[in-house]
Amino acid sequence: MTDAIRPRLAIELIAALFAVTALASLAASWVQAEADLDRSLTSVAQQLVETREADTHADTRPGGSAYRVTSLPTGRLRSDLTDRMQAILALRGSSARAMVLDTGPDTLAVALSAPERSFWVISMMKPRPLLSFSPWTIVAWLGLVGLGLGGVSMLLAQRVTASIRLLERFVGAPDGPDGLPPEVPPNGNSESQQVAKLLNALRTRFETTIEARLRVVAMAAHDMRGPLQRMKIRSEFLTDDERRVWLADVEQVEAICDGAIRYVRNREVAEPEIPLQLDEIVVAVVAELRAMLLPVELGRTGKARVLGQPLALRRLLGNLIGNASTHGGGARVSLRVEAGEALIVIDDSGPGIPEELLERVFEPFFRHESDDRPEIVGSGLGLSIARGVAEQMGGSIRLVNRLEGGLRQELRLPVPEVETV
User: Fold this and answer.
1) Phi-psi domain of 387 (left: phi exceeds 0; alpha: psi -120 through 50; beta: other)
2) How do the domains of the chain map onto residue ranges?
């Protein structure tokens, strides 16, 4: 988006500044021409007054000095300039009658009444505005103005869009393990630094709010353990069928409470990251789930080492493989290394997930229930925890529905050191 805004903003700035500069140049040209005309008329008036007072016959040829004639030069009377000349003479205390004639494309003639029905006359050049020169001069002037304005506009556009580009990176950055975008480094110009500080402050407020709400959830889940234990004790007074239904509901609530508490603990307590043999952990997790009589098959596993937290990684794999084995009718797990990443593929034979819900299932406490599986035991936090751990390790989780049926979970983790077999 910024790449599209920057040139458009630069063009708009160039057009606006160019228009202002052109208008200012026209105004300056007109003001300059008027000022030159006033100076020229004042100088001519001074010469005519001095010549008339001295009553001396100067050079009788036109060309800038005063000459005396009995008839006015041929030309069109300029009443506007005549009035200005009369005003100038009045300021000098002269009551002589003056006329200004337009005698050619570039010349004017100023005539002052003299004795014996004659006139003192001085020819003068018309002042030329700055923009009345040759077309090449105007083109060169406008070209220089355009180059200067183009450079300034590009700098301004770059400075303005720097903050927008910062917002783009903030919004488009992948969420961290806490579900928040990463902090923005306060680099660049002063505006970008201020925007970075505001974004970081906003991120801190969101983080504080989320943590406070999660702690409330964890405390509520912890406080529910007491009533749940008492409900278990009271179930002993029920019949076998009633007790079985009762305990199933209690165990489901307990699973939700335990999941909420683990979710908060995972956010607050971080293990140190160490090199781990990923294939060995996969084999161990599969063995644990098989010991729980869950249907899990282990496919081909290549050797791979990753950098991560042991307990968090085991919990991540346990959640993904456990979901496939319990909700997908059985899990098939394989591990291979490609393009510097370890790819763990977990396939199942379940009903899959609607396409519009493939991202929503990662939301905390969201559970997908359908006619095929109306009752799902769990807290709805497993996939959320799994994605957080994967992203903390620099990896990702992707869910896709297989064409032949069932769901595929793809876990990718960066592999700094790889051994394949």
Assistant:
1) alpha
2) 2-132, 174-269, 272-418
